[in-house]
Amino acid sequence: MVKSELVNFQSSDYYKFSYDKFVNKKIIFHKNFGDIPINGDIWSCGPQDNRTWQWTLHAFVPFDPIISAQDTTLLNKLVHSWDERFSHLPEEDDFPWHDHATALRLDRLSRMALQLEDCRYTELAAKHASFLLKESFYSRHTNHGFDQALSLILAALAFVEHPQAVEWRTVGLARLHDEITFAFTEEGVRVENSPAYHNGMIANMLRARNLLQVSNLDSGDFDSLFDKALQFLVWMTRPDRFLAYLGDSISYRPSVPAALAELPSVNEVRWVASGGSEGTPPVETSKVYTTAGYAIYRSRWRPWEGHTHIIMKSGFLSRYHRQDDDLNILVHAFGEDWLIDSGLYNHNQKDPVRLYMRSALAHNIPWLTKTRVNRNEPGKEFATLGRLDLPGYEFAAEGTTSMYEGGKVTRRLLVRNANNFVIEDRFDGFEGLPRYWLFHVPADKKITSAPEYVQIQGKHASLRIIPSQRIENKVSKGFKKPFPSVTSIKLNVVQDSQVIIFGPAIEKELSFDFLFDTV
Hints:
Number of strands: 20
Low-confidence stretches: none
Radius of gyration: 24 Å
Mean pLDDT: 94
Helix content: 25-40%
């Protein structure tokens, strides 16, 4: 089981292709960066000003196809070159000693030791473990901290002869149990503000279960959590069978690891992953995750094609991957996007595009001028979301947020049917402050503005947005101030979108009626 469940460097066409490029063409192939010429020095190649690329290098991600090929000569050369160049640098250096990259680098050193007899870097591994043991280095209650805990446990298994191996395992196990308790709500939803990170965390949890079992440690009852986590994927899958591009998310399709194939929710995942050709659909057409802060409406499960899918988000349980997106609403209907989100783009917190994508300007929410946004106080009361039972509506939900300092904003999502929904906003506080309402739409949509409404023309339908009172409106496209609009569904790739702006206004209450009409 050690090799099959923990090492996970089995040969594949992708690894063979990447290994051939590395050895014969001196090129690192990466799915998000394409072909990166090594140019004689792997540690200086590629876009060194890109943090994601630096993380990729220092996490030893390019080593995976080499490990799969079991080329120990090349691995020894690369590991020794990293050791000589970087291991003596102080902890304060972001790279190489990035908190997450360090954990994943140790993870690969451990898995190499388990798989390849000639690749045991015990002292280098111990140096990494010494950093990870420090409380000051530990990134508690994040996906980084989760991987840090796993890497300590795996190192204890791979380098059992080391005198500190017992301490690595003890500290790693204590942290892992704490991370698991924090990582998911009781509803089975990852707290880190992103469907994509939720999806990735399922794989991490499976790896944790396997590692605990191999280490003869108590693995607890993971199945209930896994089942709830898979069900969240069901609701967050769009009609085009991709996970919703909400918050720090990129393009993923829902899938189920083979080890979880017997769980009850698997057939529902198969239904959304196949577009209704396999599995079985849920019974309900709406779901509210009150603690995590997600409300989802589907007009139907069958026939699958062209149904209306609406998501509202309002929750703040973790600062990691937080975007200023409480009360955000996404809409996919009639086979196309209508209201979209910004995405991840990259992890460079100084990049102007990244700064925009995390900001309130990038989401389908009210935007208040001259008001600071609070990203530092997560909690269940900071932002709320709950179901409403109102006559005349197929689905209704109400969310609140305190992210704007000086008051609270309340938004209601009222869905009459697949072709008509209403958004109602109320402001408590913010006296005299101008406010705008932003709705981001794809670049390929034709937008027509009129004094009483805005109309969006799609391929198969049109969407009319009618405010409850006459209010100025305009449209902006691309990364242009004061109202930029761009989106990203793939790392480091950005494309223009459009934003419809209503305002300014100082009303305490305003609503918008959204009406679809098929062409």
